[in-house]
Amino acid sequence: MEKRKLGIGIIGGGYMGKVHAVAMQSVGAVFNTNLRPVLEMICTTTEEGAAKKASELGFARSTANWRDVVSDPRVEAIVIASPQNTHLQISTAAFELGKPVFCEKPLGQNLKESREMAAAAKISDCINMVGFNYIRTPASQLAREIIASGEIGEVTYLRGEHTEDFFADPNLPGTWRAQGRSNGNMGDLAPHIINASQALAGPMAKLIAEIDTVVKQRPSDHGMVPVTNDDQAQLMCRFTSGALGSLYISRTAFGRKMGYVYEIFGTRGSIRFDQEDQNALWLYEGNQNPAREGFKKILTGPHHPDYVNFCLGPGHGTGYQEQITTEARDFLKAIETGTNIWPTFEDGLYVNQVIEAAWQSHESKSWINLDDV
To answer: Domain residues of the chain, as ranges?
Structure first.
């Protein structure tokens, strides 16, 4: 099939803007996509900074006004990699012009905004996708296959966590990370593991949660300032399937760098995964010989989802950038076929619904039904 160019506009030139730019430049060669992205325009907060990023990353043009990106006729699809308080306005403007949108998580900065974004996507009938990259590792895709095939039977329990230590030191300054609910632990880290629980065990029916601020004050140029958002949270839930679950999320977990972890028990076996060892999945199959029973470590390789496009050697491994490139492949495929691919804005909305339910539970000290949120 003949390859067709697709003009890409990226809003945001920070860490995520860069990885999306690199993904769009490489995805055609990695996956032999029919749509071949062209980096048309990048937007950052200043004209000078945008021009610098355009030069570094290979964009044809740059701007400090996101509206220039959205309205440009040569920009056919939008990637939103800017702060979450910009997501609603940008995506709505893009949908009004009939342009597909890939938006980094979390969808909106609160549940109300997420509902508006999901509604706008539905009305426009445009392709839409949310950036939950960790669930796309070959190992986690394999875990989903194992669960879907019934190899471990019916899921009875899921334990998940997303733990990091980038804000564990109490002497770190009280920057923007310490201010505002949407910038806290529940707004930043929680969406990823909630998305994972949805992918692996389905949606939640109800939950109860406690949310905590570990470091109450942090230093600043003007003395100590109060921390106005959360550092850690614990959540118990019942999934609609009937399975039980628990999640722990923390940005103050000393020693954890990328603690995206899950353990799932079924009626015929179990699996466990740790993102710090992202190229391995541990599988326990029931009814083993008692003298030989134990977990089996499966090293990902060419026989597992999407691995072979990056590497031919089993056990050699994939990394973070490969997750983003796989996202880009899915986004392009959705545009090409006109059919959305999970996770869509509706799935991003579900994540924000769980976060809102957790806050309501914390404040009311009670179980919350997701249907009531």
So the answer is: 4-133, 135-315+350-364
Rounded to 5°, angle at Cα 45 from 43 and 46? 95
- The span from the CA of 155 to the CA of 157, in Å, is 6
H helix or E strand, kind and range, residue 234: strand 232-239
Q: Which CATH class is domain 4-133?
A: alpha beta
- In this structure, what DSSP letter does residue 166 have? T
The whole-angstrom separation of Cα 262 and Cα 272 is 6
CATH of 135-315+350-364, one of 3.30.360.10, 3.40.50.2300, 3.30.2350.10, 3.40.50.720: 3.30.360.10
Peptide bond into 203 cis (omega under 30): no
Q: Say whether 135-315+350-364 and 4-133 share the same fold.
A: no
Q: How far is CA 111 from the centre of its chain?
A: 16
Strands 4-11 and 77-80: parallel
Report the predicted TM-score, pTM, of the whole model to 2 decimal places: 0.95
Q: If we measure between CA atoms, which residue out of 298, 346, 362, 328 comes closest to residue 136?
A: 328
Per-position DSSP letters for 291-345, written without gaps between them: TT-S-EEEE--TTSTTGGGT-SSTTS---HHHHHHHHHHHHHHHHHHT---SS-H
Closest CA to 195 of 318, 83, 349: 349
CA dihedral 88, 91, 96, 99 (to 10 degrees): -170
pLDDT digits (tens, 9 = 90+) for 156-191: 999 999 999 999 999 999 999 999 999 999 999 999
Neighbour-count burial for 323-345, b at 16+ CB within 10 Å, e otherwise: bbbbbbbbbbbbbeeeebbebbb
CA end-to-end span of the chain: 46
**Which residues, 6+ apart, have CB-to-CB distance to 287 below 8 Å?**
268
Residue 229 has phi, psi (to 5 degrees) of: -135, -175
Task: Taking the CA atoms of 88, 91, 95 and 97 in sequence, report the sign of the dihedral they define.
Answer: positive
Report pLDDT digits (tens) over 206-224: 999 999 999 999 999 989 9
